[in-house]
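Q: what sequence does this backbone want?
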């Protein structure tokens, strides 16, 4: 049998490949540009803590040694900070790997997982890979429809994904509504709260979920060092859950999935809260500036509690994406047809993006 005729598993035939934001290097090659501004992947434009950089350099001498599989030092420090036990934590090559661990552990063929229609796409991908059925519930004004999600629960439901704040809309779920939802969901269904943008949220309407873990053992909380901590390139995220759930995930995780440099940098980052606080304040200022300028152009945005904006346009998001690429600005046309998602950049990057958008509008009009 020819190799190229070997059929893949039927479960992955309908799976689409995740398309990340265009890399800077690719755009440079494609358009022959030297200066590129990437506002496509919700990375921290201010980098990472100097303490993290120093920790990475120190760790080089141990590069020949495998890392500790369960990152116990990082688990201890997070447990102390967040009021949990080390056995509540598991680490991944980004929090997206923990999503894979969860579906690999708890989704079998025919099982259902409930999620929003416009949200982080790898929920759907990972469920489908395991032969599960994604149950898609439309957002309401860019926010999770919790009533609709609860109504979709069946005897086949194994997990529910709630991205809060939601990617790509940036919206949050009201804490009263979310608390009521968590309390109603049957205990044999995992509620997976993806809080990748947690550090950016300043609104009192946001629900703090960690205190709920003891009362609701079906609650799983995902966070990451990729966003506010600026460690996207090192790939380290973490999940908080009951030790019994963690033990099942350990069975299916890659043994050395969180590398030495990622563990060292994450540990050091936790010792520099002022860096994260500074990034959050700069992000708030940048977000307000972009919202104001985009409103002046006649565009609106979903109310964002993150380091990005989802902008509602009067034209194709892909059209705007392509036009901005030619000016060396990378954004993403994701979610709805006439929208783009824009990461909040530095003050200079934000101003250059607005200038580029004004050119795009002028050419079209």
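A:
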């Amino acid at each position: 049998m020819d190799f190229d005729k070997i059929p893949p598993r039927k479960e992955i035939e309908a799976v689409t490949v995740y398309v990340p934001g265009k890399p800077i290097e690719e755009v440079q090659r494609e358009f022959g540009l030297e200066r590129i501004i990437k506002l496509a992947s919700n990375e921290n434009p201010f980098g990472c803590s100097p303490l993290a950089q120093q920790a990475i350099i120190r760790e080089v001498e141990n590069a020949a040694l495998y890392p500790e599989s369960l990152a116990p030092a990082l688990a201890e420090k997070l447990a102390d900070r967040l009021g949990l036990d080390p056995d509540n934590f598991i680490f991944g090559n980004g929090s997206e790997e923990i999503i894979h661990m969860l579906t690999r552990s708890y989704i079998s063929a025919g099982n259902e997982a409930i999620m929003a229609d416009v949200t982080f796409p790898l929920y759907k991908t990972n469920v489908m890979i395991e032969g599960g059925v994604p149950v898609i519930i439309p957002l309401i004004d860019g926010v999770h429809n919790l009533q609709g999600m609860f109504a979709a629960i069946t005897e086949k439901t194994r997990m529910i994904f709630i991205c809060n704040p939601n990617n790509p809309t940036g919206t949050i779920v009201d804490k009263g509504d979310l608390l009521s939802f968590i309390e109603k969901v049957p205990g044999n269904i995992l509620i997976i709260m993806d809080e990748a943008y947690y550090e950016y949220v300043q609104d009192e309407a946001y629900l703090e979920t960690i205190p709920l873990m003891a009362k609701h053992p079906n609650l799983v909380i995902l966070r990451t060092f990729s966003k506010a901590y600026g460690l996207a390139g090192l790939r380290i995220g973490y999940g908080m859950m009951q030790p019994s759930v963690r033990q099942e995930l350990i069975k299916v995780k890659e043994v050395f999935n969180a590398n030495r440099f990622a563990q060292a940098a994450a540990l050091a980052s936790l010792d520099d809260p002022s860096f994260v606080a500074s990034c959050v304040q700069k992000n708030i200022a940048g977000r307000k500036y972009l919202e104001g300028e985009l409103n002046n152009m006649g565009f609106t945005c979903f109310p964002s509690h993150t380091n990005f904006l989802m902008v509602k346009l009067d034209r194709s998001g892909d059209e705007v994406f392509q036009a901005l690429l030619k000016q060396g600005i990378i954004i993403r046309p994701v979610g709805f047809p006439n929208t783009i998602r824009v990461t909040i950049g530095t003050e200079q990057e934000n101003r250059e993006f607005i200038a580029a958008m004004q050119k795009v509008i002028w050419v079209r009009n």
